């Protein structure tokens, strides 16, 4: 029998580990709903990021040993900043017609959650709608591929990548997703050259995005549990186009 390496062992979550990840995700979802309620034209990214951290402070029970509540510093981006994959919240103010991107997660008993949602502050132009729907379709295609039993990371990545690059060349600038556990990015990885085989019982993100530097970007990220023959989406936030228009 092949001896498993530590990254392979920890990729597969026990019931308790999974319960922590799901709890972290549910708290993130409550925080997102609150943040959306608080958004107003003129609010800065820094102020909106504080809505996020304040929300986590409110909903997360005190954790033993001072476990940090954030899985990673929240990404809050408005307008052209959404084209920057790792944008740090700044002094940009929310304006009518902006795209808004939230990428955040928290930890419960050291286990992380991760989610990205993109919103439109007012009715978006046709091009932005088209690209939002393309990103969503890329995510759905990857999910469907996993549901056929495909477990080769690069094949799953390629399904989303091929679909997007056939329409928008070179605008999907990162891997399709990553494992989530006690750290926010862990083995395995959906990447074009990944040799990883995704094991049953691991939690992965599926996060296609398209980015147009100087203009805007759109990313949609869900967390899924890889099951024996399919997968289970652990993210419970609407992502249809209508729900994305605020
Ligand atoms: Mn992620």
Helix and strand layout, with pairings?
Elements: H1 6-11, H2 15-38, H3 45-59, E1 75-78, E2 99-104, E3 107-108, E4 111-112, E5 115-120, H4 126-147, H5 153-165, E6 177-179, E7 186-190, E8 203-206, E9 209-212, E10 216-219, E11 222-226, E12 231-233, H6 241-244
Antiparallel strand pairs: 1-2, 2-5, 3-4, 6-7, 8-11, 9-10, 11-12
Helix pairs in contact: 2-3, 4-5
Structure overview:
The chain has 246 residues and is an alpha+beta fold. The chain has a single domain, classed as Creatine Amidinohydrolase (Alpha-Beta Complex), CATH 3.90.230. It contains six helices and twelve strands. The strands form five sheets. A three-stranded antiparallel sheet has the order 1-2-5, with helices on one face. Helix 2 crosses helix 3 and helix 4 packs antiparallel against helix 5. It is globular. The structure holds manganese (II) ion. This is Peptidase M24 domain-containing protein. InterPro entries: Creatinase/aminopeptidase-like, Pept_M24, Peptidase_M24B. Pfam families: Peptidase_M24.
